[in-house]
Specification:
- The protein has helices at about 15-25, 35-50, 100-105, 130-135, and strands spanning about 5-10, 60-70, 70-75, 110-115, 120-125.
- Strand 2 (about 60-70) and strand 3 (about 70-75) form a beta hairpin.
- The protein has a single domain, classed as Heat Shock Protein 90 (2-Layer Sandwich), CATH 3.30.565.
- It has four helices and five strands.
- It is globular.
- The longest helix is centred in the N-terminal third of the chain and has 18 residues, at about 35-50.
- The protein is α+β, with helices and mostly antiparallel strands.
- The protein is about 35% helix and about 30% strand.
- The site of magnesium ion has 4 residues, from helix 2.
- It comes from Streptosporangium fragile.
- InterPro entries: Anti-sigma-factor_SerPK, HATPase_C_sf, HATPase_dom.
- Keywords: Kinase, Serine/threonine-protein kinase, Transferase.
- This is Histidine kinase/HSP90-like ATPase domain-containing protein.
């Protein structure tokens, strides 16, 4: 069960990626995984803007943070499209393909739900018991 959760919509523009990063660092400021969470959301928000209908005129994406005592779940819901989030093996494409590889390396687990009308790409970060206690006391 989550201790708290927050969601916020962002316009699907490149400038919103910085705003989404700030949203994460603001609400996870005292958590030891704050920087990792920021990096993950940055990659997922960038993908939403670059690869989905969220990046079209008037498009939006939704960032959700769900925190429990020992874990933080991060999700970015986009407005869909024909492409599918796909981790490319290292070295296959010099032009990109590092974002989801990075997310898969940083997160304890990650995944995709939804379909071409809108997908949530999510990542779960576990927090150690001592670290979680410290984060909770500083909220
Ligand atoms: N939210 C998404 N919806 C649909 N397709 C996606 C989404 N995110 C990623 N993809 C697809 O998965 C591929 C791999 O994504 P990834 O973030 O690893 O690389 P990239 O965005 O192409 O490049 P980089 O992140 O290194 O700048 C993308 O090229 C795109 O085709
Ligand atoms: Mg990417």
């Amino acid at each position: 069960m989550s201790a708290w959760w927050l969601s916020r919509h962002f316009l699907g523009s490149p400038a919103s990626i910085t705003e989404a990063r700030r949203f994460v660092t603001r609400f996870l400021a005292n958590w030891p995984i704050a920087e990792t969470a920021e990096l993950i959301v940055s990659e997922l928000a960038t993908n939403a803007v670059r690869h989905t209908a969220s990046g079209a005129f008037g498009g939006r994406f939704l960032v959700t943070i769900e925190a429990a005592h020992d874990r933080v779940w991060l999700g970015v819901l986009d407005e869909g499209g024909p492409r599918f989030p796909d981790v490319r093996p290292c070295g296959q494409d010099d032009e990109g393909g590092r974002g989801l590889l990075l997310v898969s390396a940083l997160a304890d687990s990650w995944g995709v739900s939804g379909d071409e009308r809108g997908r949530t790409v999510w990542a779960l970060l576990k927090v150690g018991p001592v670290a979680a206690a410290g984060a909770a006391s500083c909220q």
